[in-house]
Amino acid sequence: MLDWRDHEMKTISIDIPENAAFPDSASDEEFARGLRLAAAIFWYDKGVISQGKGAAIAGLTRVEFIDALGQAKVSAIQTSVEELKEEKKRAVNARRYTSSGSG
């Protein structure tokens, strides 16, 4: 399974006021890690990126990213009710086609 260590990383700089208080007195590295995770969760929740891409952005494995989604109370499933109904209909039709073709 691929994880973020298998990807080349890009560096992005963000200007933050010197007097800005970091959460829990985090180091710059911890703050940057938190920002990457927050961005990945936000983009995943909006449906812009996949779990794999979110994990890579956050610097986590996919399993760790799914766990982080749960902690952030963001659903790890990006499928709507309509999509699930359509998928079920396709599966039922495929089963009927397979059953009728084998008889």
Protein architecture, described:
With 103 residues, the protein is mainly alpha-helical. The chain is built from four helices and no strands. α1 (28-45) runs antiparallel to α2 (51-58) and α2 (51-58) crosses α3. The radius of gyration is 20 Å and the shape is elongated. The N and C termini lie far apart (40 Å). The model has no long low-confidence stretch (mean pLDDT 84).
Question: Can I get a quick summary?
Answer:
This protein is mainly α and about 100 residues long. Helices cover about 55% and strands about 0% of the residues. The radius of gyration is 20 Å and the shape is elongated.
Strand tally, please? Answer: 0
- Quick one: overall form? elongated
Portion of residues in beta strands equals under 5%
Radius of gyration over all CA atoms, rounded: 20 Å
pLDDT under 50 segments (min length 5)?
none
Structural class: mainly alpha
Total helix count?
Answer: 4
Give the biggest beta sheet.
none
Q: What is the N-to-C succession of helices and strands?
A: HHHH
Keywords:
single chain; 103 residues; mainly alpha; 0% strand; elongated
Lay out the secondary structure.
Layout: H1 28-45, H2 51-58, H3 62-71, H4 81-101
Helix pairs in contact: 1-2, 2-3
